Amino acid sequence: MKIIERGLALVGLLSLCALFIYALQDAPTDENFEKKLINDYNVYALQMPEALNFAGEPMPLDNPDIYERMDRELLVNTYWQSNGLLMFKRAKKYFPIIEPILAEYGVPDDFKYLAVIESGLTNAVSPAGARGVWQIMPATGRENGLEVNKNVDERYNLEKATVVACKYLLEAKEQLGSWTLAAGSYNAGKAGISRRLKEQEVSSYYDLLLGEETGRYLFRIIALKEILSNPTHYGFNFRDKDLYSNVPTFRVEVDTAVRDFSQFAQKFNINYKILKLHNPWLREPHLNNGSRKLYQIEIPEKGYYDVVR
């Protein structure tokens, strides 16, 4: 019996030794850590699509310069995974608002990706003074009928701002002759693009020598178009329920001043924060409205927000 017990003890000891040796082998030594790093994390060169276009106008990928610049933007935006996923999520929420307006004005659907690179589909603020999803400058907004002041700034109204963007792009297309150049002008201005075309004696965006930002501009738009149109091809995995959706709203017409939007919001069982989320163009906690202008304020339908009193 003692011989058996000693044998079992010896087997147990050998097992413990084996586990200890295995643990040491699996410990993060320099050698096996490097091996795991190489095996567990891989970055792949991307295969360039055979053909790419913007608004039906082909990109000359047979040009080595164009190929390399396009490759750069595909790589940068594919491997910036967190930002990419956010773009998919926000696109589900905001593209359904943008798309029908583009179609109504006869602007190609591809221009929704211009809004993506302008602002990341957020109400961004630029150092130069541009605001909103479409990054509209104050003068451009006012010239196209938007109210822009400290109290009300309709550049933050996505529907109205999209209309302004459409008007600008239609004029740019008429003046410059192509949708590609119209897109470039959204960054550099119609006069800026016209001047460079004349100075360099070329007629295509792809033949222009431009500064860093404008030179990358169209390539970034096309890269986002390609990636957002082919998520699994570029390694993005998500379910439809992972994406953002718009909260249904109804509109309340107001043609008087509103002294306190916190009190106004309570009438609809929401708070001031929720009111602002759905009406970011209301810039102050009150509405002046000395002219008795008719405003439409978006109110979320019941049941979507729990208001804490």
TrEMBL record:
Residues 106-201 form the Transglycosylase SLT domain. InterPro entries: Lysozyme-like_dom_sf, Transglycosylase_SLT_dom_1. It holds the Pfam family SLT. CDD domains: MltD-like. Belongs to the transglycosylase Slt family. This is Murein transglycosylase. It comes from Algibacter mikhailovii.
